[in-house]
Structure formats: C-alpha cells, structure tokens
Design goal:
Elements: H1 3-17, E1 29-34, E2 37-42, H2 53-68, E3 76-81, E4 90-97, E5 100-110, E6 113-116, E7 128-133, E8 139-145, E9 148-157, E10 160-170, E11 173-177, E12 184-186, H3 188-199, E13 210-211
Antiparallel strand pairs: 1-2, 3-4, 3-13, 4-5, 5-6, 7-8, 8-9, 9-10, 10-11, 11-12
Length: about 220
C-alpha cells in the first residue's frame, strides 16, 4: 500500500473513531480537500529554527501532508527521545489518535543534519498492532496478517537505525528473517530467547507525544 493511500485510509479510520477536524488554529491558511470539496482553513505554522535541525523536518512533514493528502487533524504527532543514549535526542514521528499511536518514522542528527532513518520498517495501519520503544534502545513493530504475527526489531548501530531481525509466529510455527527475505525455521524456545534478547526486561518508554502542529512552541 502506498504512503498516500496509507494516510488516506488512516484519516478515514480516525474520522470514525476519534473525530477529526477539531484541532489547532493558528496563522497560516492552507487549502485542503474534504469529501471532494476544496476548503480553506487555518491549520498552523511551524517556524524553522536554524539552531534546531528537527524544526525543518517538522515543518516539511506537517505542511507536505496538509497540502498533499486529504488532511485529518489530530493524527500527526512527534516525540523527542534519546533512543541510543548518545546524548542527542531523536525526532520520532507518530501517527494515530486517542491512546493508539504508531511510530511512523525516526530522524537522527548525523553530521549536524537531521536524517530520516530509511531502514525503519514503516507500519501499515491495517496490519500494525503496536510499535514500541523499549528502554534498552530497541524499537519493536508487531504486524498481523491472517493470524500470522511478525515481530520486527530495530536498534541504532554507529549512529544509524538498523533492522536487527524479524521473528514470526505462524499459528505456533516459528521462523526468523535476518537481512534476507528467506525464512529460517526455529523452535519456540529459540523464538522466546530472541525476543528476550531484543526486548530485555520489557520496560517500555512512555513517549511524550505532542501534536506535530505545535512543534517548537
């Protein structure tokens, strides 16, 4: 599913469940499409701070999505958190509403520039069950397809977020993907050992999610 379709589906989903269109009102007028009707409404402006590389990222994400898609307020979020413990916070983009938010993208400062971590496994809202950040620095996505559960793990290596492995529980048969698409059959014991390896003691970071439109305030 393409990213534009993904955002459109998410907006429709959130419209029914959480209620869209009751969000921020700020300075900038932006034209968007709602149910095939073009409407001009005040959404907000994110100002770029030359001392904050993430401000440019936040502005681009926010305004690109407002202008390019059937925009739905109340589903774009961000959080700042030092995932790898190197003293510099990463910018985490979230999608969702209410209590359910998915980690959609991760940006990190590399050589003074905020770069999107391209190896992150971007979740499909139709299949994603959760996307958690553990206190040991591991990000885990869980996706479900026809009863098959896949657990994908990411960690920072040398300043970049890298996929570590994907574990699969297919109705009680267990597999793993490493860096290829080939499944390797493993035992339940090995499956549980690997989960423990990446999840550690299971302590989860409670990210301080904020509306993306409020970045920099």
């Amino acid at each position: 599913m393409g990213r534009k379709i993904f955002v459109g589906v998410l907006c429709l989903f959130l419209l029914g469940v959480w209620g869209c269109g009751q969000g921020v009102q700020e300075e900038r007028l932006t034209t968007a499409t709602f149910a095939h009707e073009t409407t001009t409404k005040v959404y907000g402006t994110i100002k770029v701070n030359p001392d904050d590389p993430y401000s440019d990222v936040a502005k681009k994400i926010f305004h690109d999505e407002v202008n390019d898609f059937n925009y739905c307020e109340g589903y774009m979020y961000y959080a700042l958190y030092d995932i790898d413990g190197n003293g510099t916070e990463e910018f985490i983009q979230g999608l969702g509403g209410g209590e359910r938010k998915l980690i959609n993208a991760v940006y990190a400062i590399q050589n003074g520039i905020a770069l999107r971590q391209e190896e992150y496994w971007y979740p499909d809202v139709e299949r994603a069950l959760s996307a958690l950040l553990f206190k040991n620095g591991t990000i885990r996505d869980i996706n479900e397809t026809d009863g098959e559960l896949s657990f994908t793990y990411f960690r920072f290596e040398n300043g970049a977020l890298k996929r570590q492995t994907t574990l699969i529980d297919d109705y009680g048969e267990y597999y793993r993907f490493n860096l290829t698409i080939d499944k390797t059959r493993i035992t339940k014991k090995e499956f549980n050992r690997l989960r423990k390896k990446y999840e550690g003691d299971g302590q989860v970071v409670e990210l301080d999610w904020k509306p993306l439109a409020e970045y920099g305030r």
